[in-house]
Design goal:
The complex is a heterodimer of chains A (about 550) and B (about 170).
Chain A: H1 6-28, H2 33-41, E1 45-47, E2 52-56, E3 62-64, H3 65-78, E4 82-85, E5 91-96, H4 101-109, H5 143-153, E6 168-171, E7 185-191, E8 197-203, E9 215-222, H6 226-240, H7 251-258, H8 260-274, H9 283-291, H10 305-314, H11 316-325, E10 326-328, E11 334-339, E12 351-353, H12 354-367, E13 371-374, E14 380-386, H13 390-399, E15 414-415, H14 430-439, H15 443-449, E16 454-457, E17 471-478, E18 481-488, E19 500-501, E20 506-507, H16 511-525, H17 532-539, H18 542-549
Parallel strand pairs in A: 6-7, 15-16, 16-17
Antiparallel strand pairs in A: 1-2, 2-5, 3-13, 4-5, 4-12, 7-8, 8-9, 10-11, 11-14, 13-14, 17-18, 18-19, 18-20
Helix pairs in contact in A: 1-2, 1-4, 3-12, 6-8, 7-8, 10-11, 14-16, 16-18
Chain B: E1 2-8, E2 11-17, E3 20-21, H1 24-29, E4 36-39, H2 40-44, E5 57-60, H3 70-73, E6 78-83, H4 90-101, E7 107-112, H5 119-124, E8 129-130, H6 138-141
Classes of the chains: A alpha+beta (about 550), B alpha/beta (about 170).
């Protein structure tokens, strides 16, 4: 993975010292609450219901074993022994003291980590997919460009006070696993007919109150122009994005108001001034960065195929885990393993204890190449595992509560922290997730249901991506009470779609029944092994409404 | 007399300042003095008013559409950019454009809600003078210019990104 040189290291330590000073000035009263707010947000520090929350950046979701150990140390020393992995591939600590944050940041800096721009109205953590660099359907490794974007956006002086937050995602696989089109800017890196690396650029996506999938604004942009093009997008947005209304301030509203064509034209006009200027990327720089991502240590070999087949035959759960939670690798004999952080009702999705983090770090070194990934579905990935080691790894993962074979199944939910932690919440999301997980404990039933994503957000901000879930649950407030609205038909991936609301909201205690009715209706309607989303797409919402609310009264 | 921070030969320093910013409201009733920084909007409507003295300095609000008049701006001694709130980042892009695209070489001053923690960003976007909000200690604010030794991306102060200098 990318290694800091002196420049990168100095910048991060200078940032720590700046923040130490800002915290001291806040504590002494020199900075007012309002003045401190954007400063702390740009360092990932939120004020939540009970305490400060610190969001640490995991650039494009890539962690080393030592970094994960450091996160375990932070969880144990400064928090309550666990951390929460997020849909932005970052990690959050929920119980942080303001006075401790400079020290935490200094400790993070020792392993090349920081919390810069994990929040606030600036360019946030750059994301890509969890299998970047190892996926068998990948055209080119997106990580070098993601790192170049990280550097470009870090403390960028012009874009630190944008109208609103700004999220960029990059993907280069046949299948989009990075939810690219729900980002403010989404980039698909691919190879054109002439064999050149080119970018297809989308802008104006986002969830929240007004969910919109982004529109394409550029077909083939040579990769060398990535930074100047993104700069042009941001300059147009910074100047013309709405600032009068927080809910209309995202770039999606600007793109929608202007129309994607007009917006693209504005960007092209701006870009004409920047094209071929100093921020044009060089081959030398690309190679320098790409060097850190090239891996040649794949030497364990596949192992004995006969033994592996025996292990599969002897243990159904293992076979299910291999089927669901491992994924083809670009190197023969290797696979990527997803460790589910969702073992069942007892654990909130994405929560990982310090001890578990240490285990994962150890496994990554023992069985892999010392690297871990964070998926936006809130799971952890060991990207490079030899097939021969799978059985041992699976046993260890099961012991540590990370071996649940439920990837992509109903209980592999994406869930935001909701009312239990978040001060913006309208409703709690974790107890709903828990109640549903309790109802659907039977794994074999879940296997039979197949791929079905269930996403829960505690408010309209959509941190839990409820719009993109095949089944989405949104917490809403009605006269001070918690209610839950259900959407169906959302999807991420190449056929991204936003879910549609099925009807009136439900009370918390009804939710497991409601989800059960959704599932039963699907089972009644599906033909052969049609996936849930395909059934919804084929039959529409009406039969589901009947299944959930009962037969509508005859009109006459 | 008020103080400002001015970058002189690359060194930020606190100096005395004798310019006065005239608000939109005052501009409607007052005729300009030699040391007035007038609103861009006033100047746009200048033939409507009895102009006795040619303005030497103007301030631009992010809502002003200054780009069409950019060639005339070159006659001025000073351009100021207003930050209605320190969280409003449009002034950074305006400074970038004035310096890089429109070739403004004279003093470029940040006025309005100008706070210490934004100064380095402002300087990098091309400001060379800073009217710190009057309730803040201007001498303390000087410290913000020396925090960073590294900049990844190119900006007005250093157009070459780090990757062209590594
Ligand atoms: C705990 C405190 C949190 C607060 C105060 C918070 C705040 C917000 C707000 C205000 C929005 C709406 C933004 C908009 O539409 O302009 C939002 C959206 C979002 N947040 Fe959070 N959030 C929190 C936690 C999280 C967590 C834990 C995650 C990941 C699990 C997350 C990921 C996201 C995502 C993915 C979106 C939607 C992105 C989009 O519209 O493009 N947030 N959040
Ligand atoms: S969706 Fe709402 S409740 Fe959930 S974390 Fe985001 S802001 Fe908080």
């Amino acid at each position: 993975m990318y290694q800091y040189d002196d420049y990168d290291a100095s910048l991060v330590s200078e940032r720590v010292e700046e923040f130490r000073d800002q915290v001291a000035r806040r504590i002494s009263g020199e900075l007012t609450k309002e003045e401190f707010l954007p400063l702390r947000l740009q360092n990932g520090l939120y004020m939540q219901k009970h305490a400060y929350m610190l969001r640490v950046a995991v650039p494009y979701g890539v962690l080393s074993a030592d970094q994960l150990r450091m996160l375990a140390h932070i969880a144990r020393t400064y928090d309550r022994g666990y951390g929460h992995f997020t849909t932005r591939q970052n990690i959050q600590f929920n119980w942080i003291k303001l006075e401790d944050t400079p020290t935490i940041l200094a400790e993070l800096a020792t392993v090349q980590m920081h919390a810069i721009q994990t929040s606030g109205n600036c360019v946030r953590n750059i994301t890509t997919e969890q299998f970047a660099g190892v996926a068998n359907d990948e055209v080119i490794d997106p990580r070098p460009l993601a790192e170049l974007l990280r550097q470009w956006s870090t403390l960028n002086p012009e874009f630190a006070f944008l109208p609103r937050k700004f999220k960029i995602a990059l993907s280069s696989s046949a299948q989009d696993r990075a939810a690219v089109r729900m980002h403010d800017v989404g980039i698909f890196l691919h190879q054109n007919a002439a064999g050149e690396k080119v970018l297809r650029v989308f802008a104006g996506g986002g969830l929240g109150r007004t969910p919109i999938l982004s529109a394409q604004i550029r077909e083939e942009l040579p990769w060398q122009h990535m930074l100047s093009y993104v700069e042009a997008v941001l300059r147009v947005y910074n100047r013309y994005g709405r600032r009068d209304n927080k809910y209309k301030a995202r770039i999606k509203i600007l793109v929608k108001a202007l129309g994607a064509d007009v917006f693209a034209k504005e960007v092209e006009e701006e870009w004409a001034h920047l094209k071929d200027g100093p921020s044009t990327l060089t081959e030398v720089e690309y190679q320098r960065v790409a060097y850190f991502f090239e891996e040649s240590r794949y030497n364990r070999g596949a192992g004995d195929e006969a033994i592996f087949q025996m292990q599969l035959a002897a243990n159904t759960r293992f076979a299910q885990w291999v089927k669901r939670n491992t994924r083809a690798h670009k190197v023969v004999g290797y696979v990527s393993v997803t460790l589910s952080t969702k073992p069942g009702a007892a654990i909130p999705p994405g929560d990982v204890t310090a001890k578990q983090m240490e285990y994962v770090a150890e496994w990554s070194e023992r069985f892999g190449l010392g690297e871990i990934r964070v998926a936006h579905e809130q799971n952890l990935i060991l990207p490079d595992i030899a097939q021969a080691d799978l059985y041992t790894l699976w046993q260890l993962a099961c012991e540590a509560g990370l071996g649940t074979p439920n990837l992509g199944l109903l209980t592999d939910m994406i869930v935001c922290p909701g009312g239990d932690y978040c001060s913006l919440a309208n409703a709690r999301s974790l107890p709903i997730a828990q109640a549903i997980a309790e109802r659907f404990e039977d794994l074999d039933f879940l296997f039979d249901l197949g791929d079905l994503s269930l996403n829960i957000s505690g408010c309209i901000n959509a941190c839990g991506h409820h719009h993109m879930g095949n089944v989405g649950i949104l917490g809403v407030d009605k006269d001070g009470e918690e209610w839950y609205q259900v959407t169906l038909g959302g999807a991420q991936g190449n056929h991204s779609a936003l879910g549609k609301v099925i009807g009136p909201a439900f009370r918390a205690q009804e939710m497991p029944d409601v989800i059960e009715r959704v599932v039963t209706t699907y089972c009644d309607l599906r033909v052969q092994d049609e996936a849930f989303v395909d059934t919804v797409a084929r039959v529409g919402l009406a039969p589901f409404k009947v299944g959930i609310y009962g037969q509508p009264k005859a009109a006459a | 007399m008020a103080n400002i921070i001015k970058i002189i030969n690359g060194m930020p320093q606190v100096i005395d300042d004798n310019w006065i910013v005239i608000s939109e409201v005052d501009a409607a009733t007052q005729s300009p003095g030699t040391h007035h920084i007038l609103p861009f909007s006033y100047w746009q409507k200048r033939d409507v008013y009895e102009v006795t003295i040619k303005p030497r300095a103007l301030w631009i609000s992010p809502d002003h559409d200054f780009e069409a008049s950019v060639t005339q701006l070159h006659e001025l001694d000073l351009i100021a950019v207003d930050f209605p709130s320190f969280r409003d980042g449009r002034g950074y892009s305006i400074a970038y454009l004035l310096r890089s695209r429109y070739g403004w070489k004279g003093e470029l001053r940040a006025i309005g809600d100008v706070l210490r923690d934004q100064l380095n960003y402002m300087r990098r976007c091309g400001f060379d003078a800073f009217a710190i909000r009057s309730d803040k200690n201007i001498h303390d604010a000087l410290k913000s210019f020396s925090r960073y030794s590294v900049q990844y991306q190119g900006a007005v102060d250093q157009p070459l990104p780090l990757f062209r200098r590594r």
